Amino acid sequence: MKRWPVVGRDRASARSSRGSRLTTAGMLVVAVLPGCAGTPAEPSTAPPTATATAGVELEGSLLFTRAGGQYGDETVFLVPGDGSPEKQLTDLGEACCARVSPDGSSVLLLPSAQPVGPLTSATIPVEGGEPAFLSAVDPDLNLVAQLWSPDGTRIASEGWANADASRTGVYTAASPSGDDLVRVTTTDTGGHDVPLDYSPDGTELLFFRGMPEPDWDLGGSLWIVATDGTDLRPVETGNIAPSWWARWSPDGEKILFAAERNQPVGGIWTVGADGSGLTQIYIPPDGTFPITPEWSPDGSQIVFALDPDSNQFAHPDNSVIVINSDGTEPTTLMPTSAFKRNFDWFEPSP
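Below the sequence we write its predicted C-alpha cells.
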C-alpha cells in the first residue's frame, strides 16, 4: 500500500509506518548567534551584514516538530504565546504535517494511527488532545491535509488514489466537513503535488511539484495556481534547486524557500510572487544547511533550523535560528539538541 509522501515525514520512514520557554506573555527571548559570512549564488544578491544584538523578542507562538531517536518519524511541539513552558502535543512519533488554524485554536496534522479506509488527517486543540479525524468523502482518495485557507473555511490537501495515478494532485475541501471537494492540480511527473501555502488573500495556492520515488524531493519545483485550478505558473528560482518547503510572505509579495537537501551549498532565498527579485537573504556558516524557513506573523522575521550538513533525512542534532526578514541579526532560539524542523509561527488565539 502506498503511504503518504513526505510532507513533514521522511519518505522512506513514511512508507514503512502507518526546551525553550516564553519568558514574557506572547514573546520569546533568544540568545545571540554570531553573524555569518559567505558568497551568494547567482542570480542572488548578497544579504546585509548581520548585526549582533543583546537579544531579540519574538511575538507569537511557535509550532514545530522533533524527529529521529525517541521522536520517531515526527513528534509535534508547541511553544505557547502565553508565557507557559514548551508543550509536547502528540505522543512520540505519532503525528506529522502539523499546521495551526487561522484563529490559532486548532492544529491540523496527520496521525500515524489511522481509521480503516484512505489516509485522512485530523485536528486537535492547540493545547493538545485526542485527534478528530476529517471526513473521508471519497473511499479511494488519500487526502493528507496540509493547511487551512486564510479564512479557515477550506483545507488544502495532497491527494492520490492507490490504484489510479491519474488522480494525484492538490485538492481542497470545505472545513471541517470535507464536502465540496475540488481538484486544483493534475500532474504527470510521477511524483506528488504538495500544497504549501495559500496566498494571504486566499485566491491562490503555492505548491511543490515532486519527482518519482525514491528521491521524490530532489529536482522538484515550486508552482502557483489559482484555487479553481486556473493560471498555473512556475515560481522562478533561477539556478537554485528549491526544497519541498516554501512559504508566502504575510504581505503577499514574496515566496520564502531554502535549497533542497544534498546540494553542495545551502541558503535561504526570497523571490517575488511574480518571479522577480530572486535574493539570497541568508548565507549559512561553512558546511551548515538551513531548512524549513517560516515567516513571523507580521513578516518582519524568519525562523528556520540550521543543520550541520545537507542531509536532513539523517535527523542530525540542529539549532533553531531567527533572523530579520532582510537576513540580519541571526540569533539562536533553540540550541543544538535533537532534530527540529517544520515551523508554524502564529498569533495565539485570544
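Residues 258 and 268 are 4 Å apart (CA to CA).
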